[in-house]
Design goal:
With 196 residues, this protein is of the alpha+beta class. The protein is built from 10 helices and 6 strands; from the N terminus they run αβααββααβααββααα. It has helices at residues 3-14, 20-26, 31-45, 68-80, 84-97, 102-109, 114-122, 142-147, 159-174, 186-195; strands at 18-19, 50-54, 58-63, 100-101, 126-132, 135-140. Strands 1-3-2 form a 3-stranded antiparallel beta sheet.
Length: 196
């Protein structure tokens, strides 16, 4: 399979900026070959909905500028709609375990959380914290904590019990090839949803 397609697939899957040096190493290509491949990818994407955004060190897939009004309308609709069960679940994980990486959220939930995290970021419920490895740590925004009526996350409903349950759950499932099931008991889930 052509390298430009592999890189596009990886960028789409990761949904975040990737280091060019990491890509060159992963695909065992020189910087010049990577540059040529990125030029090929950029040219191929030119007529579509996505573009290749490139800085000195990183690359990322982004929507085409012409789609800005359409994307803005979608963003407004997203903000007005209910965050849903998956959003509440992800938000609770960030509230009780944050700052936390997307990969750790994915391990707890058992599915890719990129879209949900984006939705929560757009709504201003969570924010990106410091960078860790190739991703960011996510944490609750001060305005979310204020909305919940607490001045720090430790003031959340049954904070110690829920964080202990999440720690136990994570530890028990760490040895299962990073496969996570919904083993948090219903009372813990109800408490988490109630607090959100």
């Amino acid at each position: 399979m052509p390298l430009d397609i592999l890189i596009e697939g990886l960028l789409f899957y990761k949904s975040q900026p990737l280091k060019k040096a990491m890509l060159a190493k992963q695909f065992a290509v020189s910087e010049e070959d990577l540059r040529t491949t990125l030029d090929t990818l950029r040219a191929r994407l030119e007529g579509g909905a996505t573009r290749l955004l490139e800085t000195d060190t990183d690359i990322e897939l982004v929507t085409a500028p012409i789609l800005a009004p359409f994307i803005e309308e979608l963003r407004k609709q997203d903000i007005k709609s209910d965050i849903g069960k998956a959003g509440a679940e992800t938000l609770a994980i960030v509230l009780y375990r944050g700052p936390i990486s997307r990969s750790d959220i994915d391990k707890i939930r058992g599915v890719n959380s990129s879209f949900i995290l984006r939705n929560l970021l757009i709504r201003g419920l969570i924010e990106r914290g410091e960078k860790q490895g190739s991703g960011y740590l996510f944490k609750a925004t001060p305005s979310l904590l204020a909305h919940l009526g607490v001045d720090r996350k430790e003031g959340l409903t049954e904070f110690a019990r829920i964080t202990d349950a999440l720690e136990t759950f994570t530890a028990e499932h760490a040895s299962e090839n990073d496969t996570v099931t919904d083993d948090i008991d219903e009372t813990d889930e109800a408490v988490v949803k109630e607090s959100v």
